[in-house]
Amino acid sequence: MKKTRKYVSMMAAATICGMLSIGIPAVAQASDGSEAVVTSSRSFTPGSKVRADLLTESTATTVEKDSSWGGIESLNVPATKSQAEKDAEAREQQAQEQAQAAASRRQSAQQVSRSAARAARASTTSTVVDAPVSGTGADVVNYALQFQGIPYVYGGTDPATGFDCSGFTQYVFAHFGVSLPRTADAQRSVGVPVTDPAPGDLLVTSDGSHVGIYVGGGRMIHAPRPGRTVTVQKLYRDFEYRRLV
Hints:
Elements: H1 2-21, H2 47-59, H3 83-127, H4 137-145, E1 157-158, E2 162-163, H5 165-174, H6 184-187, E3 192-194, E4 202-204, E5 211-216, E6 219-222, E7 231-234, E8 240-243
Antiparallel strand pairs: 1-2, 3-8, 4-5, 4-8, 5-6, 6-7
């Protein structure tokens, strides 16, 4: 009996050694003739560590020191204007346009005025008729009427450039050999004063501020004021009259 047990133990040991020699990891245990139990195990990398590594890789960021990512200062953002600023610009532009239009109108008016003056001078130059050095009052009037349309020019004494009031009378009477002073006030002292005027008489305001020539029928010819031309019109106030021819 003892031999039998010894034989069985030897056979079990041999079996275990044979199994180990062929590379099968196994553990066999037998006791008291019970069935042998074989177990095996294998190690795996923990899954939680893999997920942790993946999370670390996805959130890791490396920024180089010299990297240029741009900035808000490099953005080209168009400036916007308020409605008040837009309205102010519109008013300023409108004012400039109006000023330019006004300047254009003034320039056009000046050109028209100069053209009219040149035309009047050309007309006068071509139509003035010489009269005798001595003549009647009617001759004076007829000669003076040829200068209608000549522009008023302060200090003017010539139809080529324009007349003022005393320059006009001085020029007309000089044609008939009568020399008059240059100013209206000084012309009050020339000739014979009369109360019943006749065509060709010199007429002067009582304060010596204006002078002209009486043409008859309650009318006069004179160079009125700046912006006007030599013209015939009704007497508009009381005058003193001086007879020169």
